[in-house]
Amino acid sequence: MKSFRVSQSFFSKLLFVFVITSLFFSFGCLGGEQNPPANTTANNSSGQSQLPLPENDIPLLNISPNDTLAQNESLPAGNQTPRLNSSLEDILNGNISEDNPVIDDSNPVIDDSLPAIVNKSRDDLVSTSVFGFRPTPNSSLEIYVINVGYGESVLVKKGDFEMLVDSGSRQGGQKAVDFLRSLGLSKLEVLVATHSRPQNIGGIPDVLDAFAFEDFWNNNVPNRNMPEYADMMDAVLKAGLVVKHPQAGDSIEVNGMKITVLNPYAQRFGNNPDDTDSIVLKVKYKEFCALLMSDAPDSVESRIMGSSGDIKCQMLLVGRNGAADATLNSFILLRANPKTAVISVGPNNDNNPKQAVLEQLRILSIMSYRTDKDGTIKIESDGSKEDYKVSTNQ
Questions:
Q1: Do residues 83 and 104 touch, judged by C-beta distance below 8 A?
Q2: CA–CA separation, 30 and 33 (whole Å)
Q3: pLDDT tens per residue, range 90-135
């Protein structure tokens, strides 16, 4: 009985607390002020209801919750998505959408879903080029050193793929055009301006007027004081070509051959009066290759020998039109060990090719050809190491 009395007392106290609490809440509900229920809809001009947005909330377009910046945080380089700048009234009235945003570029937000562009765009890389032609990987490789007078222009052709390296001077440009037309060409894939000398790029506007191209490669060293350079770039812009800036180590494999860039070693903006950034190319098909030295001086030749691996090639286009500041002092003839050397040259006041260059070729038993005496020179190879053909007066 004692335990029963204890339990009865406990339940009596619990009942008392319940009654007092109920009376307290009843008094508060009847006599106190009540807040109106929160409005859960907002009407726009069309009569449709939408969930409300917090007063200071501004929506973001394609921004994840983690893509935020501190108030004074500097913006890193990369792809950025602008923040929408609009009033709450515009949002509720349906005036803002992903298709019709109001953009404020003053406060961009980083969008990490897009890859950042590092160093240079893909369009700068020659290896990313894609050309429209009929592949014939087993076709012969043909290299033509075109007789354009004092200057240089070389056609690399393999099946339906053609690359023109330089164009000759203003006077020589039409000669290059006439020769390309004699081959029945109307469209080529690549046009290369190895550097800014008038003897090499002066005829490019004529070439671009006569033929369609897909890519334009140059050494990224503008020479705004040279009219030929300005005319060339105007013609490239008019033609709407993709512009690429090859660097040493870049390469492209196309139609069964590999074209490797041996120079320039680094892209630099501004004038380079020594022309050491001239584009130098190695063209290889199976066991045959050719070195196109363009206007590279002996300092570049020495650098190429020290860092470009195997440069042994059967054919070498002698640099700088046979001038003395190339070929003689770099031992490139010993390292490349060519069997055939071609000099692109015409009447000039520089007395090129120098007699010392010709004598060195003779001493090393390298068969030499020159466009001023032999006309346009053709080298044709089926890819074998020894069996290739040289034809003159083409």
A1: yes
A2: 8
A3: 434 444 444 444 433 334 333 333 233 233 345 678 999 999 999 9
Q: What is the pLDDT of residue 20?
A: 59
Would strands 388-391 and 242-244 be described as parallel, antiparallel, or unpaired? unpaired
Q: What single DSSP character describes residue 328?
A: S
Tens-digit pLDDT profile for residues 278-320? 999 999 999 999 999 999 999 899 989 988 789 999 999 999 9
| 193 closest CA partner among 142, 244, 129, 239 | 244
Beta bridge partner(s), residue 215: 190, 242
Is cis: bond before 54, omega within 30 of 0?
Answer: no
Domains recognised in the chain with CATH numbers:
80-111 (no CATH), 122-391 (3.60.15.10)
Distance, in Å, from the CA atom of 24 to the CA atom of 18, rounded to the nearest integer, reads 10
Query: Residue 355, Cβ neighbours under 10 Å: how many?
Result: 10
Residue written as tokens 């009569």?
A: 47
The number of helix segments (H) and strand segments (E) in the chain equals 10, 19
What does the alpha-carbon distance between residue 284 and residue 256 come to, in Å, rounded to a whole number? 9
User: How far apart are the C-alpha atoms of 368 and 135, rounded to whole Å?
Assistant: 33
Most confident region among 66-75, 264-273, 321-330 by mean pLDDT: 321-330
Cα–Cα distance between 127 and 120 in angstroms, integer?
13
Among residues 363, 354, 317, 359, the alpha carbon closest in space to that of 336 is found at: 317
pLDDT of residue 171: 95
Angstrom distances, CA of residue 55 to CA of 63, 81, 390: 20, 23, 81
Beta strands in the chain (DSSP E): 42-43, 49-50, 80-84, 103-110, 141-145, 154-158, 161-165, 190-193, 215-218, 242-244, 251-254, 257-263, 280-285, 288-292, 315-317, 340-343, 367-370, 377-381, 388-391
Task: Specify whether the CB–CB gap between 213 and 188 falls below 8 A.
Answer: yes
